[in-house]
Amino acid sequence: MRSLVLTFDDGPDVRYTPLLLDLLKHENVTATFFVVGRHAAAHPELIHRMISEGHTVGGHTMRHQNALLCTPSAIRDDFKVSIRLHRELTGTALRFFRPPWGISSPFMNRYIKKYQIQRVLWDVMAEDWESQTTSGIISSKLKDRVFDGAVICLHDAGEDTGGAKGAPRRTIDALIHTIPWLKAQGYQFLTMEQYIKGVDAHAIQQRKKGLVWP
């Protein structure tokens, strides 16, 4: 049995995230959502639904800002607010964090280490945010690039952070066709929490750069 981790950045978005959750529930697939704090605070019902349906929720900063353009105090305050908000919304400590655009700084790394949070990057992208892409192109890229143990990064939001208008809808449409194909190839879908626990040790051994330990 092969394994992969589906992850989604920049949400939740009330227009797209419920549709994605409906699809994942229909396919009996769990995923990991790296949510932007201000969006999560605006739609706590979506965070509660993620948790209740077995998904893992991680952090993606409060406002999706580039770490290299933030002052040390801004990064410190962002972590403090994010950690408090995550506990309020999920009832658990923040365990997983993905920096916006995958960009960290020495100050961000300091707080990741201080709060004992796992920094998570990715192995596979499908450029699903681009204006010229289509659901078919996204699906083809995923099929071509996936491998055993891959951490896949997609988006259920992001129009306010550089993504094209309507891009998450194309991602969902791509997954409607891609998830059944992945299942047919023998892939099991893990949350980041399951991945870390070593539910599938072989997949973890095969992974490349998706997980970065602080």
From TrEMBL:
Domain NodB homology intervals: 2-190
Biological-process GO terms, alphabetical: carbohydrate metabolic process
Gene3D superfamilies per record: Glycoside hydrolase/deacetylase
GO molecular function, one term: hydrolase activity, acting on carbon-nitrogen (but not peptide) bonds
PANTHER family linked: 4-DEOXY-4-FORMAMIDO-L-ARABINOSE-PHOSPHOUNDECAPRENOL DEFORMYLASE ARND-RELATED (PTHR10587:SF137), GLYCOSYL TRANSFERASE-RELATED (PTHR10587)
Protein name as catalogued: Peptidoglycan/xylan/chitin deacetylase (PgdA/CDA1 family)
Organism encoding this protein: Frisingicoccus caecimuris
